[in-house]
Amino acid sequence: MVRHAVVEELAGLGATVHTCARTESVLDECLQQWKMKGFKVTGSVCDVTSETERQKLMSTVSSQFDGKLNILVNNVGTINFQKTTDVTSEDISLYLNTNFVSAYHLCQLAHPLLKNSGAGNIVFMSSVAGVVSVSVSLLEHLKEH
Question: Which keywords does the record carry (predicted)?
Answer without folding.
Answer: NADP, Oxidoreductase
